[in-house]
Please model this.
Amino acid sequence: MDRQDGVSRRAFLVTGALGAAALAAPRQAGAQAQTTKFHVKPLPAEIFIDHGINQETRLETLRGYLTPASHFYIRNHGPTPVLDAAAWRLRVEGDAVERPLELTFDDLLRLPARSVIAFVECAGNGRGFFKEFMGRVASGTQWRFGAIGVAEWTGVPLGAVLELARVRPDTPRDVLNVLVEGLDAVKVNRPMSLAKALEEDTLLAYAMNGEPLPPDHGFPVRAIVPGWVGINNIKWVGRIEVRRTVIDVPTTTKTYVLEGPDYPTRVPLRLQTIKSAVALPWGATLRAGRQRIRGFAWSPVGRISRVEYSLDRGATWQPAALREPNIPRAWVRWDFEWDARPGEHAILTRAVDDHGNVQPPAIPWNAQGYGYNVPVPHPVRVM
Amino acid sequence: MDRQDGVSRRAFLVTGALGAAALAAPRQAGAQAQTTKFHVKPLPAEIFIDHGINQETRLETLRGYLTPASHFYIRNHGPTPVLDAAAWRLRVEGDAVERPLELTFDDLLRLPARSVIAFVECAGNGRGFFKEFMGRVASGTQWRFGAIGVAEWTGVPLGAVLELARVRPDTPRDVLNVLVEGLDAVKVNRPMSLAKALEEDTLLAYAMNGEPLPPDHGFPVRAIVPGWVGINNIKWVGRIEVRRTVIDVPTTTKTYVLEGPDYPTRVPLRLQTIKSAVALPWGATLRAGRQRIRGFAWSPVGRISRVEYSLDRGATWQPAALREPNIPRAWVRWDFEWDARPGEHAILTRAVDDHGNVQPPAIPWNAQGYGYNVPVPHPVRVM
Model:
């Protein structure tokens, strides 16, 4: 972040005007009223596995690289609030802030925009496999691998807003001291480090795949924190607090922590883990003959460099073909051809990223079921 | 294109099966009936300039990098047909084809998919400026610069389909001999060269920004021919013909040709021209003070390396900031800060690509108004 630029940015913000017409887009229909429905968008059973307030994407329904809003998984802590962008305010405050701010939605639109293609993934994606393959239930939604989606997010770098608020230069960069808080009923909040907050791809986003954020995905503004666990990507953002010390909140002291017999102390989550998934229903039925098996692989820190598959439960591995695009902290699509013979089969896949991370053969259990990324035997029946 | 692979591709195509379940997506609602409406999607006046059967995007309404289907311009030669994917067939034939084919939509879904982010732009985008700045009307829709959009297109490389049809190896590569034909009422068709048809990013696309193509944009299948004029991106594709000789059709002999006093012979169009546009209404009104002016720039052959703007009608030029992403044959977003003083102003912009192409100070007039890419003085009133 270029601190020299702070004066001019503040200047143009205070001066106002700034061609809001250039950024005007049709207002979200029906953005005036609160609703008590859990979700706003349609949730057809062909696309989503219904976990109640949470909805898992059936990855086999995705055709392109990007996940359309209509197919994007939902992880909510309460019903989706339907907010009015004109009434929306963002407060920026805290003891590390020299100039507390309140921004309107139009103020945000006037700041330079950035678009980032990145995954957003629930911290507990894959949680169901702790039970399925380790025999130990972890608490929470029993997702398989469908609590992930990749979209183009457009908004303002969070760093640009922190610059307007003049974060003190001696603020520690590596502790969890930038809290982002939602306007939902339970005010879900979660801190990240100042270093992460200042990365150019960390956004206060107002658009998803070029359109205003849908209510279920955070309208009017959500955080996008590439590579970090989903909870950091706070929806319906209303307040940001920056402190000179770590911010302890229940989402880092009680929930979203690694804990269990193999963890001497609770560890607040930051990064996701590298994973791959087969784009077939769990327990798919295929006809015998040549089949093209496809799927997705993603890493929280880089680009996927290799995906391998095994049809003999891990005895031997073959490379899958990777299909462009292959964007870091988004995902890559892979596929392979399989001469499928009748019977019961399991397809294992494992991914490697360009930082040398690989899906491990085993991981320790944790009570809340985070980070499951062991290659899973995806069951397939061939008729 | 790897010709060695032809046998295995044909083999799996003939064997069939291939996990169509993996690619199943909800069928387009109402895909059973023909309609006589011009267009299917809503066309609000805030988003589109109404040219009747053609609809121009107001570039100032775009928020992200990608153009959502709801905002994508429409250039049709007749009413949008609403087709049934289950009944759709693609014929591949012609004297350069050793194995004529007929493919179903499911056959197409079984082939390896590719996604490409690219612009599609009407050949006549900017046509209105021939009248506005040269005083000579060119025939056709009087677009300004809004007959362009950038989307993620997903489908099968056309080359993979031509490989299945076994195009004869001695077929000329650089003449316009691969004809793509639509299933609309007038069967719009247009040839490209075999070389272009075999580029890996030339697609038979069935998805746009991750969702099935909307009817107005070619459901179920359209051609995507990056960098070439919009007419090559045939919608509602139904037939492909490959010949050992040039294919002359009215869209290369009469329309979509450069002709006029400066063109001794008619020249069929291939590539688009490099352009830039300001994302403000034509004749915008802004308040005095610091303004952020933004826009788009694109090239048919590469990535934009520089955008410059002039506020003194071309006497001096300043660099604009380019915003990521910057994808070749898609576009880049640029912006600059302007301390706007009251009065009438003109904003000129010019783009340069990484092949050294630059928007020229003048171009010859042509009767059909193609390729206008002279920097235009975008009128702005500051109050």
